[in-house]
Amino acid sequence: MKAKITVLPGDGIGPEVTAAAVEVLRAIATRYRHEFEFDEQLIGGAAIDAHGDPLPPATLAACKSADAVLLGAVGGPKWSDPNAKVRPEQGLLGLRSALGVYANLRPVRVHPKLTALSPLKNEKLHGVDLLFVRELTGGAYFGAKTRTADTATDECKYTVVEIERATRRAFEFARARRKHVTHVDKANVLETSRLWRSTVTRIAKDYPDVALEHQLVDSMAMLLLTRPSAYDVIVTENLFGDILTDEAAALAGSLGVLPSASLGDGKAGLYEPIHGSAPDIAGKGLANPLGTILSAALLLRHSLGLESEAAAIEAAVDAVIESSVLTRDLGGGANTNEVAAAVLAALAGQKERVAA
Ligand code: NAD
Ligand code: IPM
Ligand code: MN
Predict the structure, then answer these.
(1) Scanning 36, 52, 285, 327, which has the fewest C-beta atoms within 10 Å of its C-beta?
(2) Distance between CA atoms of 317 and 328, rounded to whole angstroms?
(3) Percent of the chain that is helix, strand, coil (3-state, to 5)
(4) How far apart are CA 161 and CA 181, in angstroms?
């Protein structure tokens, strides 16, 4: 098939990890005879430096006309002055909003080889297989902001429509999994959470085969570490989802291995690792590319409908983890390019087995 993929390397380790994922996508294109056209554009701090705008019109246009967008990360100390008028993160938030990608899928699986890296006891990690569905285009991220010398506000607003569409996605995915949805909120305090709770409860009636439970976010932050295998699909609002998924990285062994897919109503989507630009390790070859490579697999699955190709990448990543070619965050001594090369070699090995 032919597909146009817009690539947004961004800042910090973003260019390093997207380069690795694009190489993997190129290898997939060759092996399965697809034509992927890659169109690289600026976003975030790199775009501020070049154009004074974290989401230049050319970037947005390229993303809107693409079949899928692959993004590295944005942000860094250079653009983090609290008084700055433009910030890299505005580019990312503007892009998510403009593309209408309201459902952010963040799968969390624990590879048996990596359990030793988690601060949790190994037996707790057995069978952990979570799918977070984080609402991505509403809540405090997008509400009105005010600021005076001594006061600041961030409005947190949700409409029923926004809650419904993210919730339906969560239930649809739960149907294809273990049929269990945990809705996380703060309904004992927040009015938005009470709207979420009543809306999720109503939507759940359309999915009688899926069990629903509600959990307050503070206790969920604890339960995620004490009984992580008890959960299947976890649906929650934007800010809670941001925080809980970084917490969940402690289950998987490193922030560097977790991918994400952001979907709207159409097939096009935005794919990015859940980690940031990691300024502390940028430019040193220490970045783990697996989260971005796994995001590329999600891109093939959800935007291009290429399930075998997606599964091939996931199997190759599993094989690389198995063989212990790992970056420093996973206790290894390999650099970004060596891990990417190992994924390519594992893919090539699969091809030989298929041909044999
Ligand atoms: P971060 O995710 O960039 O880094 C947190 C820690 O995890 C650091 O120690 C970093 O070295 C490590 N880490 C992250 N990704 C890694 C990888 N692939 N391999 C190895 N180690 C990795 O979070 P932060 O330091 O809080 O934020 C830095 C900047 O990134 C901020 O400007 C923030 O706004 C931005 N950010 C962007 C995104 C995004 O673009 N989607 C996501 C999160 C944070
Ligand atoms: C993420 C990031 C972003 C978010 C930031 C960079 C705006 O932390 O993708 O998780 O908070 O959504
Ligand atoms: Mn985050």
Answers:
(1) 52
(2) 16
(3) 50, 20, 35
(4) 19
Number of helices (H) and strands (E), helices first, in the chain?
Answer: 12, 12
Counting residues of the chain whose pLDDT is more than 70, the rounded percentage is: 98
Same fold for the pair 1-101+257-356 and 119-252: yes
75: alpha, beta or left? (left if phi > 0; alpha if psi -120 to 50): left
- What CATH number is given for 119-252 in this structure? 3.40.718.10
Q: Give the distance, in angstroms, between the CA of residue 82 and the centroid of all CA atoms in the same chain.
A: 26
Q: Whose CA is nearest to atom 9 of ligand 2?
A: 274
| Higher pLDDT pick, 354 / 58 | 58
Read off φ and ψ for residue 73, nearest 5 degrees. -165, 160
Query: Ligand 3 centre and the CA of 274: distance in Å?
Result: 6
Domain residue ranges of the chain, discontinuous segments joined by +? 1-101+257-356, 119-252
Asked if the 1-101+257-356 domain carries CATH number 3.40.718.10, the reply is yes
Give the separation between CA 142 and CA 136, rounded to whole angstroms.
Answer: 10
Q: Is 186 a catalytic residue?
A: yes
DSSP annotation of 164 reads H
Ligand 2, residues at Cβ distance < 6 Å = 75, 89, 92-93, 242, 274, 276
244 C-alpha to ligand 3 centroid (Å)? 9
The predicted-structure confidence for 159-191, as pLDDT tens digits, reads as follows 999 999 999 999 999 999 999 999 999 999 999
Taking the CA of 292 as reference, the closest ligand is 1
Give the Cα separation of 81 and 332 in Å (integer).
34
What pairing do the DSSP bridges indicate for beta strands 129-135 and 145-147?
Answer: unpaired
Of the listed 2, 64, 218, 267, which one is catalytic?
218
116 C-alpha to center of ligand 1: Å?
22
185 belongs to the catalytic site: no
Q: Is the pLDDT of residue 352 over 80?
A: no
Q: How far apart are CA 70 and CA 38, in angstroms?
A: 10
Ligand 1: atom nearest CA of 246 is 2
Distance (Å, whole) CA 312 – CA 346: 9
- Residue in this structure with the two tokens 């809980």, named with its chain if needed: 244
